[in-house]
Amino acid sequence: MTNFSNKIKIAILGRHQVGKSAITVRYLTKRFIGEYSSAHDFLYKHSVNFEENHVPVEIEILDTCSNGCSYDDVIRWADSFLVIYSIVDRDSFHEAEKLLKKISKLKLPSYYTALMLGNKNDLEHSRTVSVSEAQEVSLNYNCQFLEVSAAESYSGVQLAFHSLLKETRSSQLHRNLPIRRKLGVNSVSKALGNIFGKNSKADRKRPSLSI
Ligand SMILES: Nc1nc2c(ncn2[C@@H]2O[C@H](COP(=O)(O)OP(=O)(O)OP(=O)(O)O)[C@@H](O)[C@H]2O)c(=O)[nH]1
């Protein structure tokens, strides 16, 4: 049995007015609320079932208020990050990229997961950030990418949170496996050997794939 913490800490980051609170509250209550007080950070504690085995996982979501703070403490605190920009605000996209850069520097060498989320895609007519450039940034920082509208769709917001949570969960599980059970080079090589028949008598002369 593993004895690691059954908790995931998510930080919601992004420029002011991109919809950080709208997305957080939409996920937690399924409702879209147009205006929020944004003078303080809010920490929400919640229990969710997003895995096939239906074991509830404790999550903490920190909805930050973008008051010009550096976020350093928040970045050190969190295991995973929802980095939000608005598809109608280019500055917020550049800020999301800067935040991903900062997270990757501050979290090294520890593992973290991140999802870059373009919000307000109901405002397609005013779009200033294309999907392809956002995809490129997400590839550069090895994070997931999605676009949603907190105003129009609960399911998109739920998908974003659950994709992030699933990735975070599987990385936690993998890191807590005993070393000999992790899929190392040897076991990858062995698995490929099985697939390509390296170990079967009939195929011994087949060129083997070495890693
Ligand atoms: N059209 C549209 N408006 C949205 C959407 N999500 C949020 N908004 C609006 O955007 C504004 C900012 O939303 P907030 O959730 O307060 O944004 P925030 O990032 O938490 O703001 P700060 O705390 O000030 O940084 C509000 O007027 C929301 O109603 C969306 O998906 N579509």
Automatic annotation (TrEMBL):
Record-listed E.C. numbers: 3.6.5.2
Family to which the UniProt record says this protein belongs: Belongs to the small GTPase superfamily. Ras family.
Pfam family membership, one: Ras
Keywords annotated in UniProt: Hydrolase
Gene3D superfamilies (alphabetical): P-loop containing nucleotide triphosphate hydrolases
Name assigned to this protein: small monomeric GTPase
Record's catalysed reaction(s): GTP + H2O = GDP + phosphate + H(+)
Molecular function terms, GO-annotated: G protein activity; GTP binding
Main EC class the enzyme belongs to: hydrolase
Lineage: Eukaryota, Metazoa, Ecdysozoa, Arthropoda, Hexapoda
Gene source species: Chironomus riparius
InterPro entries documented for this protein: P-loop_NTPase, Ras-related_GTPase, Small_GTP-bd, Small_GTPase
